[in-house]
Specification:
alpha+beta, 8-stranded mixed beta sheet, 8 strands, globular
Length: 193
């Protein structure tokens, strides 16, 4: 990391908006609503999300929310909630993980509540966090990684204009216990933005 960059000193806004969505950093008390969305979506999340192997207790989800709040302040992971501006409905979760501040590389991860799926919300949120990463975080590379079997997640990356960089064979042990190939999508400064 360059000597002059101290991530915790970066002034990073805690929210941004898209046409239909408010995307904001997590806050204490968000665990209950997130847990309800996980319960509703457990069958769809189970194959891809480690936290959905079994239904977490509300307290476990609240713990995750509070740990995410601390990580956001430390600039180690930037997890955010997605809500509809129209009615405040919890839509899902999006965040930037595996951050390399020296390279300004960010990996976007996401999941959506089942009842909100199919409305373009996640593609809109991915486009929003991509713009946020470019404009606010001065990203040079933004990645999306997903199991090669997770067609819905890959479709979001493709609709958001990410380029498939390649497939990492047998690179990730998914919640089913098996090794999966991983698709790696990216947008890179000078090429896609």
């Amino acid at each position: 990391m360059s000597n002059d960059l101290i991530p915790i000193l970066l002034d990073i806004p805690e929210s941004f908006e898209t046409e239909r969505l408010l995307v904001r950093a997590m806050r204490a008390g968000d665990g209950k609503e997130m847990n309800e969305a996980i319960r509703e979506s457990l069958d769809e999340l189970k194959p891809w999300m480690p936290f959905a192997r079994s239904m977490p207790a509300v307290e476990e989800t609240e713990q995750y929310v509070r740990e995410s709040q601390v990580a956001y302040l430390n600039r180690t992971t930037l997890n955010m909630l997605i809500t509809r501006k129209l009615d405040g409905q919890f839509v899902g979760n999006i965040g930037m993980h595996h951050i390399d501040w020296d390279c300004r590389r960010f990996e976007v991860g996401y999941w959506i509540r089942s009842s909100c799926s199919g409305n373009g919300y996640m593609t809109e949120a991915v486009n929003g966090i991509t713009d946020f990463s470019i404009q606010v975080l001065e990203a040079n590379r933004i990645e999306i990684r997903c199991s090669a079997l997770n067609g819905r997640s890959a479709a979001v990356a493709e609709r958001a204009g990410f380029t498939l960089d390649g497939i990492l064979r047998k690179s990730t042990r998914e919640p089913d216990g098996e090794l999966h190939d991983s698709k790696v999508y990216a947008k890179v400064r000078g090429a896609e933005f």
